Amino acid sequence: MILIVVLATLFRCILLAFNWPTTNSDEGNLGIAGMRIAFHGELPIFFYGQAYMGPVESYLAAPLFRLFGPSLFTLRFSLILMYAGFLIGTYFLVRLLYTERYALASVLLLSFGSPEVILRLIKAVGEYPEMTVAAPFILLIATKLALTAPTRERPSPMVPWKRYMLFALLGVIFGVILWVDLIILPFVVTASIFLLIFCWREARSWPLLCIIGGLLLGLFPMIYYNISLLSDMKVFLEQNSVSVLLHMHGVSDGVMAEKHLTLLHQLLGSIMIALPLATGAYPSCPDQDWILFGHPTSATIGCSIASLTWGIVFLLLMALATILAIVAVWRHRAIFRSQDAEKRELFILKSARVMVLLSACLTFGQYITSTHGAVYPVTSARYLSCLLDTMPAIFWPVWVGAGRLFKAINWKQRALGIVSSILLAILFVTFVRGTIGTIRDVPDAYRNYQQRDRLVNHLLSIGATRIYSEYWTCNDLIFHSKEQIICSVLYPNLRPGLTRYRPYQAMVDQAPVKAYIFPKSAEHLKALEKKMQGTNYKKEIFEDRYVIYYIPQ
């Protein structure tokens, strides 16, 4: 297990060394926050420009920036450690709930992945690496606490202060990860219910206070922010974290109504696009949202059928594993109050399997009932990141079926073993192919980074240090130049846009000389060309990709 984790981690370090995956302005936003924390003493509570999602990745990057300087590699390095933690947590959870051999196989599988799965865990765009590493530890700690809970017949085998520390640690994880994003809520809810069932005797004692105290500690930044708004009730009602989150979801509802998308689009987008992307299907389909917004071609139909099949089979396996786990618990329900320690432990472990699978069901349930699957299924597939943590539980019946292939005593068992083996082989081969596809993408990402480096150097050489641009260029240039270039966002009509760190907008507006830089495909250029007529601005095309307007120094 250690060897697999080390090799998988080193592989991702090599990817980062070649600047894969290609960065963007969302990642630049977190890099900027890390620099403001490291060198200016700022303490942002949320992502710049939005009142939710705690910038944990920026806080982890800040000390690395101080030691080694700001760079894309140092921004992402802490995520590599999170990924290693995800594999280790998954191993111990699966070993506890199932078998050691299956735990090793699970870690081996998750050391590979499609480009989408790999980049989601090593790209610093917020929340997804944190949630993926937190989920197995939430489930593991909850199971450990249930296994060592005191009963009427026997005290807890664990020293009391250790149990208190575990409850407090779980509370802190709850709080921090809810501050990061509420998408993790299904795991928090199922783990809490699980603890309430098996640790109910401690509900009126120190463990309850420890977990609540840890929760409040982890949530402190969010609580502090919302309390600070209470001085103005109107502002509080509009800008508290819950209202902002509901507003963000309401935007997609409005887009769905505007584009006349239906429940069918929502279901197809969730099952055919988002679910396969989130769970490692490879290759992803070209123009895979054609079913929602476009027209099919010969290149998309076959791939889309494959994606739909992946999504349906995955859901069927999730339903099968959940039903089997619930049936197993129901059949052994009499053990719940058993005085036999071994039987009770077995019942708790079977119940913990249900906890894991219900977390998966609730995660997908909250996604498919939202409008994200209809409006932007490709980009919102990241909301299903935590399904990776539950894949070992979902594929456990398949693993068991495959293991019985050579022990089959009749044709039914043999057929089940063959089908299960084929499914496991398809899953493993798909993940390996995805990793190979990732390697093929590295040269493009490296060239893109080098071009961005040349662009930054060129802008500095012509004195264009205060610039206007569009959103997906601004933060990237600011972070890449280590704030030597300050950028403010403009909408296509050249009015002020979403500049996430607001002081940057004032710095550019107040600069005596400003430059303009946009990709050649930007909608802004038509209005900008009209604005530049009759001025002393010089127009320049940079490497056939960017249009720059600047006043020569």
Automatic annotation (TrEMBL):
**Keyword set, alphabetical order:** Membrane, Transmembrane, Transmembrane helix
The UniProt transmembrane annotation reads 73-94, 128-147, 167-200, 206-227, 304-330, 351-369, 381-402, 414-432
Query: What is the designated name of this protein?
Result: Glycosyltransferase RgtA/B/C/D-like domain-containing protein
The beginning of the lineage is: Bacteria, Bacillati, Chloroflexota, Ktedonobacteria, Ktedonobacterales
